[in-house]
Design a protein that fits this description.
5-stranded mixed beta sheet, 159 residues, Purple Acid Phosphatase, chain A, domain 2, 20% helix, alpha/beta, 10 strands
Length: 159
């Protein structure tokens, strides 16, 4: 199963649009947003994603009621899903993941620090797609996760 993963979009509409288009080109079936959408107007852009959308709140998602009105499925992390035969843990910040949650997961998806992480440790895939917005490091990125291969490809989504 291919899953589009993004985080830290921080209202950057052109980057969100390009990430979703990239997910379409990679034939993703589901999209995961690991927090910091920020505003409801940006959340509306996520509604055009291919497949099912899972979203968690990040630390900059202050307008929670407005976000919830656009994305009724948004919730606090941790969120654990079973997709493509893998157990996926989603939390905005890696340090917020408890050892118990990590122990039960095959794939750990986070955001928050805006830095790309795509590595296997102890049989688990740790994935941070980096900052889709590009505000902090100037690199707009997302990821395409392949659950069958237990690997992810970081894609550039510069607007």
């Amino acid at each position: 199963m291919k899953i589009g993963v993004l985080a830290d979009t921080h209202d950057r509409l052109p980057a969100i649009k390009k990430a979703l288009a990239g997910f379409g080109h990679h034939n993703v079936e589901t999209v995961i947003h690991a927090g910091d959408v920020v505003a409801p107007f940006a959340a509306k852009r996520l509604l055009s994603c291919p497949g099912r959308l899972y979203v968690i709140y990040g630390n900059n998602d202050g307008e929670r009621e407005g976000l919830k009105s656009v994305l009724p499925q948004i919730q606090d992390g941790p969120l654990t899903l079973e997709l493509g035969g893998k157990r996926i843990l989603i939390h905005h910040f890696a340090d917020w993941c408890t050892p118990d949650h990590i122990a039960q997961a095959d794939i750990i998806i986070t955001g928050h620090d805006h830095e790309v992480a795509n590595q296997r440790r102890d049989g688990k895939l740790y994935l941070n797609p980096g900052e889709c917005c590009g505000w902090l490091y100037g690199r707009c990125t997302a990821a395409v996760l392949d659950t069958e291969l237990m690997s992810a490809e970081i894609i550039e989504v510069a607007p």
